[in-house]
Amino acid sequence: MATSWHSNKFLNPATDGVVLPILHLNGYKIANPCVLARISHEELEHLFRGYGYTPYFVEGDEPETMHQLMAATLDAIIEEIQSIKSGANGKGQTERPLWPMIVLRSPEGMDGPQRS
């Protein structure tokens, strides 16, 4: 699984499509929280920048606020992707871009079916 985070290094922004990774850290677990849920916001940001991404964090526990934050984040990401692609197509940028990704932190079961 860890190797898949490096697949962005093979993308050509002038000719390839784009995948938007979303890392959902929601507290669900089998025995303990996953490794990435145990590290700080700052460490996650450094990790994913090292992997070649620009992480956008969507965090909270109020559904209405989270929906608005996710919508605004997606709008910003779409603009960033368009900028990356137009730079590669029209301006001849050759360096590998930092592709956007989302780190979504929400409480276990937020806005889902209630447990009985």
What brief labels describe this structure?
116 residues; alpha/beta; three-stranded parallel beta sheet; 2 helices; 34% helix
Give an overview of the whole structure:
The protein is an alpha/beta fold and 116 residues long. It has a domain at 43-90 and 98-108. Helix content is 34%, strand content 16%. It is built from 2 helices and 3 strands; from the N terminus they run βαβαβ. The chain has helices at residues 41-51, 63-90; strands at 22-25, 53-59, 99-105. The chain has a 3-stranded parallel β-sheet with strand order 1-3-2, with helices on both faces. The mean pLDDT is 85.
Task: Report the helical percentage.
Answer: 25-40%
* Secondary structural class: alpha/beta
- Main sheet attributes: strand count, strand direction, barrel closure: 3 strands, parallel
Determine the N-to-C terminus distance: 33 Å
Strand portion, in percent?
Answer: 15-25%
Widest sheet: strand ordering: 1-3-2
Name the shape in a single word.
globular
| Unreliable spans | none
The sequence of SSEs as H and E is EHEHE
The radius of gyration over CA amounts to: 16 Å
Distinct helical segment count: 2
What would the average pLDDT be, to the nearest integer?
85
Number of strands: 3
Map the helices and strands.
Elements: E1 22-25, H1 41-51, E2 53-59, H2 63-90, E3 99-105
